[in-house]
Amino acid sequence: LQADGAEAIDLLPLALPASWMVNAKATSRAMQRWLAPPARTAWSIVLDGLAFDLAPDAWADVPAEERAAIAAAVSVLADGNDGATLAAVTKVLALLRPQLVPLMDDAALWFSLELVPEPTTADAPAAGAGAFVPMLDWFTAQVRDNDARLVIVASEHTQAVLDAAQALDRLLWVESWGHRLRPSRRGAGPG
């Protein structure tokens, strides 16, 4: 819809409940608040700053003041009330900006940058909004530096068309929560 000219802010009401498909913990009360000022204004700042056509390699060129405005807006959204956490916010953003924003649950933040302690459950996300920009910096640099390899991985996924960023997002999820899928742990190999 965005490729045909729809504004992301107009698609937000569709993306909010869809985020439950990736286990977002934001309640319907949080989502209702997100659709009204001042949260709706914060969503506009984030969605406009992370433009639909902004490629991962262009994130590093976003001016510091714009990055700060995006970070401040994410802080408004990820206030912790009714499950409105950083993880829940990024699960919405991953639907509207899949070429740029990964799911930033605690496991991904721990695995990639050790921004939070290693989680034992996804049921109580603890990461604050301050992790958003550092994780986006890390993620977009990884996509840029590993684009060719990620395209190969993405092309092997036959169930859906993925780009490099989406492939990395899924790989990050498997590796960060891999202990649930196999007995080995981070750094121990697939055992």
Cα-atom Rg, whole angstroms?
16 Å
- Structural class, from secondary structure content? mainly alpha
Major sheet summary line: none
Distance between the terminal alpha carbons, to the nearest Å? 43 Å
What's the helix and strand layout?
Elements: H1 8-18, H2 28-34, H3 39-49, H4 64-77, H5 86-96, H6 106-113, H7 132-145, H8 147-155, H9 164-176
Structural descriptors:
single chain; 191 residues; mainly alpha; globular
Provide structural commentary.
With 191 residues, this protein is an all-alpha fold. 51% of the residues lie in helices and 0% in strands. It contains nine helices and no strands. It has helices at residues 8-18, 28-34, 39-49, 64-77, 86-96, 106-113, 132-145, 147-155, 164-176. Helix 1 packs across helix 5 and helix 3 runs antiparallel to helix 4. The longest helix is centred in the middle third of the chain and has 14 residues, at 64-77.
In short, what is this structure?
The protein is 51% helix and 0% strand. By secondary structure, it is an all-alpha fold. Helix 3 (39-49) runs antiparallel to helix 4 (64-77).
